[in-house]
Amino acid sequence: MTEFLETTVDKFIFRVAKDCFYNSEGVWARMEDNQVMIGLSDFVQQRSGDVAFAEIKPEGTNLNFDDEVAVIETIKVDIAFSSPLSGTVVQVNPAMEEAPEVINEDPYGEGWMAVIQPDEWETDKARLLDPQQYFARMQVEAEEELAKGNE
Amino acid sequence: MQKEMSDLMKGNNKKKVLIVPCSGIGKTYGTVSREAAYEVVENVRPTRTQLVPLSLLVMGDENSRESVTQNPAVTIDGCKLACATKMVQESGGTVARDFAVLDVYRKHREYKPKGIAELNEGGVKLASVLAEEVAEVVDDLEINIHSDQDSEGGSNG
Question: What single-letter DSSP state applies at residue B117?
Fold first, then answer.
């Protein structure tokens, strides 16, 4: 059972899964059975809005750390996301094609984007933010968003 | 608008299908929902539909609230919050069909909407496609409304 760090900013509640590591864009990475599942953080999905389309790099794609791994189109923006690790895409969540709104509905669960066979997970992990670090960063970003909205 | 709503409630008009769009101001998808609603009530099915501004329901306008309890409503929501649908339900009305702009866009990715006060060409086309889909539902409801009214007439007569 995943546990979360949670904060409330204005009327929004944001959760950060404790069993993931994060890149600076809010892409989470979770090691499971020697493979790494990736997805978007709760903060990123709420800030980005309802997802209309999600295009994930296809199975077999070799990725370097920070290579583009996904592009999502929401009702607000089009955003490209970087891979939080190097490796090979071994599985893409079929829901990304058929019902990408699962990213909004369950960002740390059913809304996973892809599974990657890592090349050097321990090295890559050291470049990522742990849950506490991402939580702190996310709080700052959320407060900045709020301040922008109030300007 | 107020007079039409009042007439609707007093039975001066036949039962109509109410079109309730999103009230999201400053949001592209909200604008698409409203443009689609205007297209339906002004051009596509002007005699069979009636626009109900969501803001009136939110403010508790009596005429609007009563009209949604007496006529089927088709809601057009701009986002997953589904304010139009929820507000009709909270006002005691029946949502015959709820549309989400996002769902229609997913079927017509070539019509990417942009703009707020004024939609781009994609947005205008998306609103038009959405209006046609709403019109089809209105036609289906029209059949049901008439058969309801016929049966009411028969039982009274």
Answer: S
Is B29 within 8 Å of A101 when comparing Cβ atoms?
no
> How far, CA to CA in Å, does B43 sit from each of B48, B135, B156?
11, 10, 35
- Per the structure, the count of domains in chain A is 1
Question: What is the Cα–Cα distance from A136 to A139, expressed in whole angstroms?
Answer: 5
ipTM: 0.81
How many angstroms separate the CA atoms of A104 and B151, rounded?
45
The DSSP secondary-structure symbol of B48 reads T
Asked, for residue A106, whether it belongs to a domain, the answer is yes
B23 to chain A nearest CA, in Å?
15
CA dihedral for B109, B114, B116, B117, sign (positive or negative): negative
Residues 56-95 of B with CB under 8 A from A: 78-80
B64-99: b (≥16 Cβ within 10 Å) or e:
bbbbbeebbbbbbbbbeebbbbbbbbebebebbbbb
Per residue in A20-54, pLDDT (tens digit) is 999 999 999 999 999 999 999 999 999 999 999 99
What are chain B's domains? 2-134 (3.40.50)
CATH classification at residue A36? 2.40.50.100
Segments forming the whole domain that contains residue A92: 25-127
CA distance A47 to A137: 14
Q: Are B66 and B9 in contact (CB under 8 A)?
A: yes
The model's pLDDT over B115-152, given as tens digits with 9 standing for 90+, comes to: 988 999 999 999 999 999 999 999 999 777 766 665 54
